[in-house]
Design goal:
This protein is of the alpha/beta class. The protein is built from 15 helices and 13 strands. Strands 3-2-1-4-5-6-7-8 form an 8-stranded mixed β-sheet, with helices on both faces. Helix 13 links the parallel strand 10 and strand 11. Helix 8 crosses helix 10 and helix 10 packs across helix 11. It is globular, with a radius of gyration of 23 Å.
């Protein structure tokens, strides 16, 4: 298993490819975006992730990591591509299918194909089916397929990737065994063996558990608004109970996992997943409640000028995927605001959905505080936590994260 091909050099694929390369394997990282490939081959990174740049530079300098726009022959193939959902919340497996069919010509007998992308139950079996559809000459040959979902926290990926426990589920016992052996070369956490379907469901369960708990906090914040109660104080007090640990509310739930994965369970068991569905609906509706607060402030302000602090889905990263903060900014930009000032310290340009809006500007925190009379705090980036609270004097402040409480 000396050669590894990682398909997708995004937030999970690039750190994974780098970790494996720095463990002594020859790694080919494949990404369809030429700019990404060129950046990685310079030993640089195209995403914000603390500590990753040094590891990528080391891997590329050693000659163990090389990026390309096409796959290469390898002993192990790892699929780390997006698994979003469609407009009707149905899982979209087009990226997984496309990546699988793209590697099929390079697969040979004895290869191990690992799906790391968080996926609906049964996807690993579909990967096997797609490979064999493309390569009928391999039907009946020894090929190994497994699912090994990542469990890392953006912002701490470099630290967590080698140390977190991993769930490994093959389509058969031999596939599980070979995958455990492979991950044992670069993961120090426990390697937990199961079957592919259980591994797929485990990741969905972990993120659905978190989503339900966040929904409880978000629903509390909505109730407290109605009853005139400070939700931040309420949660602080309730959490003094030795067996209570309520999470913090926010403007919604974002990211490619928690905002998406519960829908995979709902799609597979629509009549049974009632609590999971309602939690998703609560969290999906939270941005609309935040926007109503902004509109109330706008109606009460002469010449309103709104500053949105943060677009990312969580603090101190540049990941905008499924971000409720970005969704809120987009809706506000599409409204009748004369000007929307956006502050996002982790990006250098507005995303396409905002870049074409004439009433939107990406500005520094200092400029936003000088110009705005309504401040909407959406993400608790370190820059916002450290800002001088005196700058907020005289402004209407809508704090969805409780950092000014």
């Amino acid at each position: 298993m000396g050669h590894v091909c990682v398909i997708g050099l995004g937030y999970i694929g690039l750190p994974t490819a780098t970790l494996i390369a720095n463990s002594g394997f020859k790694v080919y990282g494949m990404d369809p975006v030429a700019r990404v490939v060129e950046t990685v081959n310079r030993g640089e990174i195209h995403i914000v992730e603390p500590g990753l740049a040094a590891y990528v530079k080391k891997a590329v300098s050693s000659g163990n990591l090389h990026a390309d726009v096409k796959p290469h022959e390898a002993d192990v193939f790892i699929l780390a591509v997006p698994t979003p959902f469609k407009e009707d919340k149905e899982p979209d497996l087009s990226f997984v299918e496309s990546a699988t069919r793209e590697i099929a010509p390079f697969v040979k007998e004895g290869n191990l194909i690992i799906l790391e992308s968080t996926s609906p139950v049964g996807t690993t079996e579909k990967v096997q089916k797609w490979v064999l559809e493309e390569r009928t000459d391999l039907v009946g040959k020894n090929l190994y397929f497994a699912h090994c979902p990542e469990r890392v926290l953006p912002g701490k990926i470099v630290e967590e990737l080698p140390h977190n426990d991993r769930i490994i589920g093959g389509i058969d016992a031999e596939s599980t065994k070979k995958t455990v052996e492979f991950y044992g070369h670069f993961v120090t956490g426990a390697l937990l063996s199961t079957d592919a379907r259980t591994a797929e469901m485990a990741k969905l369960t972990e993120n659905s558990f978190r989503d339900v708990n966040i929904a409880f906090a978000n629903e509390l914040s909505i109730i407290c608004d109605k009853l005139g109660i400070d939700v931040w104080e309420l949660i602080r007090l309730a959490n003094r109970h030795p067996r209570v640990n309520i999470l913090q509310p926010g403007p919604g739930v974002g990211g490619h996992c928690i905002a998406v994965d519960p829908w995979f369970i709902v799609d597979s068991a629509p009549h049974e997943a009632r609590l999971i569905r309602v939690a998703r609906e609560v969290n999906d509706n939270k941005p609309h409640i935040v926007m109503e607060k902004v509109y109330d402030a706008v109606r009460a302000t002469v010449h309103p000028k709104v500053a949105c602090l943060g677009l990312a889905f969580k603090p101190d990263i540049d990941d905008l995927r499924e971000s409720p903060s970005l969704q809120i900014a987009e809706k506000l930009a599409a409204g009748s605001l004369d000007e929307l000032l956006v502050v996002e310290p982790n990006v250098h340009e507005l995303p396409a959905s905002l870049a074409d809006k004439k009433n939107v500007r990406l500005v520094s925190l200092e400029d936003a505080m000088q110009d705005a009379n309504i401040v909407l705090l959406l993400v608790d980036h370190k820059e916002f936590k450290a800002m001088d609270r005196a700058l907020l004097k005289g402004k209407t402040v809508i704090d969805t994260r409780g950092i000014f409480a």
